[in-house]
Amino acid sequence: MRKFKEGFIEKTLLTSALITVAVTIGIVSVLAFEAVRFFKEVSIFDFFTDSQWTPLFTDKHYGILPLLSGTFLTSAIAISVALPIGLSISIYLSEYAPKSFRKTVKPMLELLAAIPTVVYGFFALIIVTPYLQGIFPNLSGFNSLSAGLVMGIMIIPFISSISEDALHAVPRELREASYGMGATKLQTAFKVVVPAASSGIIVSIILAISRAIGETMIVAVAAGQQPRLTLNPMVPIETITAYIVQVSLGDVQHGSIEYRTIFAAGITLFAFTFVLNTISYRIRKKYQSKYE
Amino acid sequence: MNKIQVNRWKDQLFKIWGIGCTLVGLILLVLFIGDILIDGIMRIDWGFVMNLPSRKAEKSGIYTALMGSLWILALTTIIAFPIGVAAAIYLEEYAKKGRFSALLEINISNLAGVPSIIYGLLGLEVFVRILNLGASVLAGSLTLSLLILPIIIVATRESIKAVPSTIRDASYALGASKWQTIWNQILPASSGGILTGVILSLSRAVGETAPLIVVGALAYVPFAPSNPMEEFSVLPIQIFNWISRPQHGFIENAAAAIIILLLVTFMMNAVAVYYRNKWQKKWN
Amino acid sequence: MELVAEKNTKNFTMNKESEQESKTKISIKNARVWYGDFEAVKGISMDIKPNSVTAFIGPSGCGKSTFLRLFNRMNDYIDGFRMEGKIKIDGTNIYNKKIHVEELRKEVGMVFQKPNPFPKSIYENVAYGLKIQGISDKKVLDSRVEKALRQADLWEEVKDDLKKSALALSGGQQQRLCIARTLAVEPSIILMDEPTSALDPISTAKIENLIFGLKEKYTIIIVTHNMQQASRISDYTAFFYIGELVEYSKTKTLFTKPEKKRTENYITGRFG
Fold this sequence. Notes:
The complex is a heterotrimer. Chain A has twelve helices and no strands. Chain A is an all-alpha fold. Chain A folds into two domains: 2-41; 65-287, MetI-like (MetI-like fold), CATH 1.10.3720. Chain B is mainly alpha-helical. Helices cover 77% and strands 0% of the residues of chain B. Chain C is an alpha/beta fold. Chain C has one domain (5-267): P-loop containing nucleotide triphosphate hydrolases (Rossmann fold). In chain C, α4 packs across α5, α4 packs parallel to α7 (171-184) and α5 (138-151) crosses α7 (171-184). Chains in contact: A-B, A-C, B-C. At the A-B interface, α1, α3, α4, α5 and α6 of A face α1, α3, α4, α5 and α6 of B.
């Protein structure tokens, strides 16, 4: 009886674990299923080369490039804010700051990542854009600049926290060897500690990029709904995610080509994040036990 | 100036830069929240919480959205909590090291990095269409459950790992079965960490907007849902809707609703941190 | 003699000869160290002779490592560290506010308990101390790296693999690399904190030989657990017990005719 019960419990637990596999299979097959049907009507070549994305207009074009450029633009702005700041914070906290300061500040910074993204959208649209318009008068009400900047603030803790963990894990002996030869903390940080922790830092950056390209609400609120192939941060654009939101808010018939566009856009987004996540997983596994 | 002095100077400069970077995030956070408080705090009163949405900003309230959020929160907990913890127990205590467990691990790590809007597409196709649940509270909760599953699993595994093996050995030595050991010893010992992870994942769920929009949650719902099969809205979607409107009154509403949403999120985080500290002390 | 930047490093070398005559390299006056409330070093005074090997012995936790790390101010970065008293190197108080620790540490090198090469190539490890001083001339670097590796008795073993990772070396080779790394900066004092405790007997013997050869040019202070090692390689030995200096004299005297009962008990193995 006891044996039967134990076996039953194990099966139940196994089933729960298998649900996670089912989720992945579900995601891939749903995206693939609808995308395949989409590509029966639109050629893959057009999808990747047409410079217009206008599925909701009468003159329909299905070129993903404008959505990709929008996604790329906002993510690039976000990373160029979050990377230098996040990395500096991590180095400051692990190499300079007193222990007590580090212990209080780290969770406070992590709070930045806990704020719902729609709230950041509000910041970007209602606070940051009007402020920036004071500096750049030709900045549109919707633009990738303020959406990107605010997104950058949001992902700071992704970089600072994970990098700080990696820096902190570098053995004290290496630092002492460097100090012992007359190096300053700064020299020690950049010549010894950062190189030794580089895998962890790279993982943090990849995760931040992946997070930025999948971010939805900030760009849906503040970056606009005008897919256009541009790298100009001052004008309205549209990202892949914002497009999916735009379609979802409207009344789109199930089974129509418009309905399928969100899956075609979705599978493109998924492919990017999947590649990034896989790379970061590999790096993490490879270097996990380096200093243990 | 000699080289050493230059280096010392650079060192000091970086230190100041580092403090500046650390503070800039926190200062912006404070500024943003301050601005939202100014915009919205006057708008919050009993009517704002209890009123139904309306075309007129000053008559609008968040009642239906708040109720929708509570429904979603409750159902998501009921669905995700047992599955997540069970999966974590399997991975930590039962799964043998090998290809299968490596696959499960890669899979979970990958799921944690899938953008939330993709979960929305999954929910739309599977729950809304195939299972024919429609844009219901249940479909939304199922979608968010899948979204937070990896977070719960990772947190639970960490907590179980932290339980000293001596406890396990002691239980086995007394003749307890595997499940008895897990149920009577390991789960109680790791409950603090598990609780922390679950609360944090739920605070994420409360703030999620995009997947629920994709699933079909509405911006305008005239009544609070009374059962899991009804249509719903949630606070973040209500906020999103108000932000998108040009009239100033709605911006005020959005700010007021954000204050309430942030209050909920921060409170959940505070509780989680409290449990984490309490739990960490236990083992150190 | 000053270590402050304006007066520059040259003073150090200039004063070396004259200081040598006074026969004191490091002079410690009533040094006390606290970590928070814990007093780790309780008022120690001693003089250390130039061009000699001085061994610090004593049971674990007796404060000898903490005391050693005072000489290159390595304790400065530890939370709650507080220090009183005077430590003069070549007549300069190294805890003076005007002292630049970076300058000091070029003069006072350190070898640690566990070999701690940087995860870089052998060459980069030895060149590190020079590069952080801003030396970038390839020829100068090459010759100083070779010189240091020869001094550390490692050149023949690694001369064809300078680009290889230092982590690929054996433990003993790694420790000699760390010595070479320290020598490359051309200090006048070398602090060694139990440098052979993580090594096998053969590697230990090699390092002891090395130390023996180095004392001609350097003042060496070595912390060791191993009393045979202290008696083999040192000229002077200091015995520490719970933060205090119990006895300090010529090594021969200390091991054959210790003055204090406690020293005798320790060196004969009755405690510790």
